[in-house]
Amino acid sequence: MSRFSLFGGMVAALMAAQIPLALAHGGEDHSTPPPPLAQVSPQTGTAAETEMFQAVLQAAPGGVTLLYLADTDTNAAISGADIQAQAGDWQGQGKPTPQAGVYRLDWHPLAVTDVTLTISAQGRDDLLLIGGFGPAQPAAAAAPAPLSWVWALALIPVLGVPAALLLRRRWVAVVAVLALLPPDGPALAHSGHDHGGGDQPAPAPVAGQVVTVPKAAQFLVGVLTEPAAHRMAADAVRVPGRVIPDPVAYARIQPSQPARVVGDPAFPLPVPGQRVKRGEVLVVLEPTLSSLERSGQRGALYRVESDIALQERELARQESLGGVVTVKALETTRIRLDQLRRERAQIAGTALGRELITAPVDGIVADLHVTPGEVVDPTKVMVEIVDPDRVRIEAVIHDPKIAARIGAASATTPLLADGAHGLTLLGVSPRIDPVDQGIHAIFTPQPGHPPGLRIGMPVDVHLEVGTTHLAVAVPRQAVIDHGGTSVVLVRVAQESFEIRPVRILRVVGGVAELEGVKPGDKVVVQGMDQVRGAR
């Protein structure tokens, strides 16, 4: 074996010992990359604002400049504005684009300059000065990656020393030098990282941080603001209630005496939902009598029929005598005969005959509580009739002070998705109900209320019992949860928003009184999630 072969074997053995171990990890799926976080373009412009308008200038390709115009208080895009611009020796007019609030200036700055804008929009005129506007800055070039051959050059001295020693047959020194090469540690694969070499997304903003959202993105997602201010809000109280029928258009039909329901084909029983008219026959009843009562009624009927027969013969005899009988006696006999006939009809039609129960009002049958052959007593409700277009709202109030200060009112129910129904107060009961221990207030829906309120439907009645002064308040939807903290988004510049922590003092209706904002702060009331998600 030559010295060079022996040297090569030693080098191969020692270099193999330097190869790091590749340790796999368990269970991670690298087939699908992690979803990228939503980002907002970092391209911002040069801006200025007054009490009326805010304007942002941004250089665009094609030798033009884009002007974004918005309202200072609401951040709403302003269309149809007359804009006169001047920058140095150049003068021009802002031309509208298809996008609301965006105008084009046929001019591109060659150096940093000041731009003067004269704006007339929505009946307001204002003058804006935007300073320091210049051409767009080119993007920074990425740093070159280090060359792998640098490491190869670094190994030349390390490999050269063993080669020289080998030629001098100093094997021990060769082995010692190769052994001094530092071994690499094991290569551990791990989870949770993107090995594609791309840029990592920026972390989510935290409370107290200022995020930047270009005006173009604000217009795209419809970001709107509202100044925080002192407010007078209606103090409202929610109490339980239910829909009840209007007494004038509601009927509960009961029998006047114990009777049996008769299934008469000529007068069938109504069904719920059937519309009926006043005087229409609903139920046919047959009185229920004991044997003794029925015998007494039949005896009375026989006596009346006997009297009728006698009076009929007497009337015939008097009429046959002609002028012998006085006119007065003849009329008395006729009146007596007519009375007996009506008495017979009364006995036969009520005590021994059938009774026809008719509808007392116009409406729709709400419930039917009887069946043919059923025996009913005077306390039994057989049929209920309602007019669905005439209903009332009954609210139960457990605070006498609130009952004495009722102003406007409205009703809502989760069963209907058409919002609140305006109510008009009819009256408040002077007593406390012994069942629910509450004071009952009766309301009627205001004209034009949407259909859908049904008898017995539970509702929430919102009572306005006065006004409340709120120091600094914003709409309730402006307060959002951000990592377990209540925050609002305050516009601190034309394209910057602060995620400001706040404390909710109280909520009155749709308005929240806050601690942490000052009057005049422009708070985002629409597009909060889009602004908060900016990077």
Structural write-up:
A hairpin with an 8-residue loop joins strand 24 and strand 25. The chain has 5 domains: 3-32 and 141-188, no CATH class; 46-133, Immunoglobulin-like; 210-232 and 470-532, conserved putative lor/sdh protein from methanococcus maripaludis s2 fold, CATH 2.40.420.20; 236-247 and 385-467, Beta Barrel (Elongation Factor Tu (Ef-tu), domain 3); 254-379, no CATH class. The radius of gyration is 48 Å and the shape is elongated. The protein contains 9 helices and 33 strands. The model is unreliable at 1-41 and 140-194 (pLDDT under 50). Helix 3 packs antiparallel against helix 4 (171-179) and helix 6 (291-321) runs antiparallel to helix 7. It is 21% helix and 37% strand. The strands form 8 sheets. Strands 14-23-26-25-24-27 form a 6-stranded antiparallel beta barrel. The chain has a 5-stranded antiparallel β-sheet with strand order 2-3-4-8-7, with no helix packed on it. The protein is of the alpha+beta class and 535 residues long.
